[in-house]
Amino acid sequence: MRDLRPRRRRAVGLVLALAALMALVPMGAALGNHTVATRTDIAFTSTLSEVIEPGEEWVDEAGIYHLRGMVEVDDIAGDLSGTATVTVNVDANEAEGWVSAWGTIEIVDEAGWWSGTWLNNQFFDGEEFVEVGFTIVTGHGGNAGMTIAGGLTLADDDSGTATIEGTLQTMAVPHEALTINQDLCFQEDGSISGGFIASGAIEGSGSAQFAAEASGGIWTHTYNLFAITELANEHGTIAIAFMGGAQDGEVYSGAWGPFMILGGDGAYAELYGAGRSVATVFFTDTCASGLGVRVSFVGVAHYNSPNALLPVE
């Protein structure tokens, strides 16, 4: 059996699980034209340099291992180069064969810096080892207007090296404001679906499908959440990823963080966008399950084609 004990050098092993959606992603023109938005593949390595804060470790009465607040510094090399500061939190049960890890990441490079969050879940599905994780980072300074969504794969050896692979979106001007509100229900089959209404760069409404992966558990009530929502109407489809901190409790259950448009088709094939998201879970009689979730995206968008936006009747 593979050793699932949390590794001090790196507790995050993220696998890019967006491949099924990449068919929706139209690759843009070359960088450098500020009127043209782009999506390009990006890959770089993250290698542990030092642990600057060991954090707090304990094992509870149920045998669950917990780590909170470990901070490490990594060297970044590849399509992106610089230094990363990573915070790590872990819940794990070696006997049951699972690890759930999450935290924040900040990368400093020559142009500016990137900030974001990550999560990673490792477990056995029968005899098969499964590792699922995601990260989204937003650019600042000279990297403003850029977002990276993707995953991080941990090396099987003890080199302390991880490979990050994903998509870099670079926005362009002019921007249009974008607001998308989704009202969704937890369905009895475990899926989450409903509808959306949008204004600004997208005017109209349609159906919405929502899939999420969360880290952490009932021991903390705070964790990270990654989700992909797919919107569809008569004009086309749009895939949007968002990720950030999350909380469950008696007063508030929800998540908050950045979002990035992964791609689309039809009228939305040349749509690019990013911004902030908030998701709130609530009890409601309008859902057969009694449980709903409202997701709001507020940000900016850009169409590479001036004729892409179709009128809504």
Summarize the structure.
The protein is an all-beta fold and 313 residues long.
Low-confidence stretches: 1-33
Total of domains:
2
- Main-sheet strand order equals 1-3-4-5-6-7-8-9
CATH topology of the largest domain, by name, is AOC barrel-like
The global form is: globular
Largest sheet: 8 strands, antiparallel, barrel
Distance N terminus to C terminus? 58 Å
Q: What is the strand tally?
A: 17
Helix-strand topology string: EEEEEEEEEEEEEEEEE
Portion of residues in beta strands equals: over 45%
Mean pLDDT: 83
> What's the level 1 CATH class of the largest domain?
Mainly Beta
Class of secondary structure makeup: mainly beta
The Cα radius of gyration reads 20 Å
Any idea what the CATH architecture of the largest domain is? Beta Barrel
Number of helices: 0
Describe this structure in words.
The protein has 313 residues and is an all-beta fold. The protein has 2 domains: 19-170, AOC barrel-like; 176-303, AOC barrel-like. The protein contains no helices and 17 strands. It has strands at 38-53, 56-59, 65-78, 82-93, 98-108, 112-125, 128-141, 146-154, 161-170, 176-186, 192-200, 204-214, 222-233, 236-247, 254-264, 271-283, 291-303. The strands form 2 sheets. The protein has an 8-stranded antiparallel barrel with strand order 1-3-4-5-6-7-8-9. An 8-stranded antiparallel β-barrel has the order 10-11-12-13-14-15-16-17. Strand 14 and strand 15 (254-264) form a beta hairpin. The protein starts with 37 loop residues before the first strand and ends in a 10-residue tail after the last strand.
